[in-house]
Amino acid sequence: MKRSSRSSRRASSMDHNPLLSDGAGAASDETGREERKPGGWKSMPFIIGNEAFERVATNGLTANFMVYLVEQYGMRQMEAATLCNVFSGTSNAAPLLGAFVSDAYWGRFRTLTYASVTTFLGMVVLTLTAAVPQLRPPVAEQSGQRLGPSGAHLAVLFLTLALLVLGAGGVRPCSLPFGVDQFDRSTEPGRRGLNSFFNWYYSISTAATVVAMTAVVYIQDSVSWPLGFGIPTALMLLAIILFFAGIRLYVFVPPEGSVFSGVLQVLVAAFRKRKLRLPAPNDAVEQETLLYINQARKSTMVMKLPLTLQFRFLNKAAIVCEGDMKEDGRSADPWKLCSVQQIEEVKCLMRIVPIWASGIICFVALTQQWTLAALQSMKMDRHLGPSFQIPPGSLGIICLITIVLFIPIYDRILVPMATSITGVQGGITLLQRQGAGMAIAIMSMVVAGLVEKKRRDSALAHGGADGSSPLSAMWLAPQLCLMGVAEAFNAVGQVEFYNRQFPEHMQTLAASLFHCSLAGASFLSTFLIAFVQKSTRGQGRASWLDDNINVGRVDYYYYVIAALGVGNLLYFMVCAHLYRYKGTPELEDGCKDIKAVL
């Protein structure tokens, strides 16, 4: 009794200290603790508000970072570009490590807390480099140019970047899943709220990015760097305060141990029992007798998954042999006996990977639009009115504004209309939404190719190879608007798909997978550009991607990406047809998304 009393007091203490354990408020029924009910939209002002301020803060610091390195740190342009690329790539890879730590050890709340504070410290150091002259290279008296950075200056800079990378590794994979945790997916209102949450989360995050790329960058360029960095740093502090303000409303899902060891355990156990016979699929009694079905879960928010026949060879990992179970009904060796729940979670991962791969090609179209549209606009008329001229790098904001405007229309108007027709919650399924985004991305690339041919012909007619087209840069708006709509469908669809289809205790890994798609698209774009340049140059012909855009044939390159998109869409349709949604009973029909995509 004394031991039970001590355990009870300790559990109660942990309930009020989420930094000690992310099991607070979301413990399993076996512990006897009363769970805190998900607050749903009551928690969202704190979570989405935190995300908005965090996006303005981090994007406000990094959007103009290369200019800062060149102007204030005296770096050469290629050195600065290389450092920015390394920083960007590392920031996109870090969420994998952060997801592992969160899912296995800390939980989402604690990981978010530590990562947010780390990001804030990195911003403070970067702001100090702008405010304290001794932390930057001096200006040469004779030339008036800033000297290159010394070892000490680089040490301070690398400390800043290291803190920002560590912060990104924790914030990016945990922010969205933590918001998902606040909805009760076992109820109809909870599921409806979750549908809208993904849309509003992405829309507000994009709006925050627009603010960072316009207002904050303007302050940095036109007012002062210390103020331009100080404002994002203050906003990051405000984001942390806002996040903690909602702590009494949050639900905390506990970590469930190493994700990867659980996957390996299923594979090893299935291999060890590969020669054993599985019970008949329709014999429920034999399955109950021979298979290890029940397993205690740390949270009732984890969906119990039914046994399926897809990847049936893995089911052998649940066959109970002599000596496999302890007297209390638990597995004696997880490398020899795994539960049906654990096996089905591994199957979820195996089903998702082919769908994830299809998203990379779609993001290639998105990333190429940003880069090439800026180059196109440099050979066009960028004036809005008699005096104002649009910066080439700012044209991408058209895509972001489209996302911000379209997502509320989609959520409030199109979804209810589609739901009344299809009867599907959310209007269309998650895979249908991704497929629609891929189709619109293809349309965008075709439109981009047509506009580029018109621009190129006009430029050649008004000055030859070095000419500039009198066409307005607003001719590029249709392709960018289409790309914004494509991103609203596909990117938001991917985010929601990963968070719904991944096992609940792996959702931070799911969020990191989205960033891996972006990283994969960047690497594939680099390879594609190098391949096209090499294969289209020779025998007196200029490359399609020549440094002089009027000499090259960027329109052909757009069509190549569109053709890749068509092949990718066909591949996606096959994957969607074969995909089985998480928790779907074996007797129900499989996914019918291919019909909707067609």
From TrEMBL:
InterPro entries: MFS_trans_sf, POT_fam. Residues 1-40 are annotated as: Disordered. One of its GO terms (molecular function) is transmembrane transporter activity. The chain crosses the membrane at residues 112-132, 152-171, 200-219, 231-251, 352-370, 390-410, 513-536, 556-579. It holds the Pfam family PTR2. Keywords: Membrane, Transmembrane, Transmembrane helix. It is found in: Membrane. The keyword RNA-binding does not apply. One of its GO terms (cellular component) is membrane. It is a multi-pass membrane protein. Signal peptide: none annotated. The keyword Hydrolase does not apply. CDD domains: MFS_NPF1_2. Gene3D superfamilies: MFS general substrate transporter like domains (1.20.1250.20). Belongs to the major facilitator superfamily. Proton-dependent oligopeptide transporter (POT/PTR) (TC 2.A.17) family. This is Major facilitator superfamily (MFS) profile domain-containing protein. It comes from Ensete ventricosum.
